[in-house]
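Supplementary notes (optional reading)

For those who missed the lab, this is the record we used. Protein: DUF5131 family protein. Length: 253 residues.
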Amino acid sequence: MAQSNIEWTELTWNPVTGCTKISPGCKFCYAEAMSKRLKSMGIDKYKDGFNIRTHSDALNIPFTWKKSKIVFVNSMSDLFHPEVPLDFIKAVFAVMNKTPQHIYQVLTKRSERLLELSTELNWTSNIWMGVSVESEDYTYRIKELAKTKAKTKFLSIEPLIAPIKTLPLNKINWVIVGGESGNKARPIEKGWIDFIKVECNKKNVAFFFKQWGKPKFNVNPQDPTISTEHPQHAKGGCELDGQIHRAMPSKAA
């Protein structure tokens, strides 16, 4: 468990670590870079670097939190990676089922396996399920997410590296959008963001604009959130037409 700097969550919990690249959004994976750094620091959990590893000793961690938390599950992996056994996925879900005071945000790029296993998992209302979508080519993940039994469904459109022209939002409750950061970050364009925002407004879907990624991508160089001293600072700033959009979905009943 670790405090998170990610704007849409509070903590990260990693019962699984490691992953493999599956699509262009993975090119500059922060989790891979972080795993290598942690391995070099001698952190035992990352002794195998970015290879897939399950950590049974991490399963009890949520029971130790005294207050309700919003938790990003497996920020350093993908729970639905094919190398993660179904029994372990069920064990992670069992922990989430037994701690309804916490909200768990699970995010995957493996929407096919998510859909395949959906009926075998217990989707209590505190489990928010999301898929990553970086361009039009991967919007099929949205349709597969929509078919699952998750009560709250969300999209992480980050890094947005190409325009999305069709955005099926049926049964989707929340959309997060963000540009890529880092030395080799690919640019984001305002028109791409505007399209997503308009579609969310049409469907009454909560819209969360996380960041431009780099100041040079931001159409407003005077955006005050570019400054690290701003209370809502984000990488590259996060204002869109002079406003900060950080809507969250309503809690599922």
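If you only remember one thing from this example: Helices lie at 30-40, 86-98, 111-117, 140-146, 190-203.
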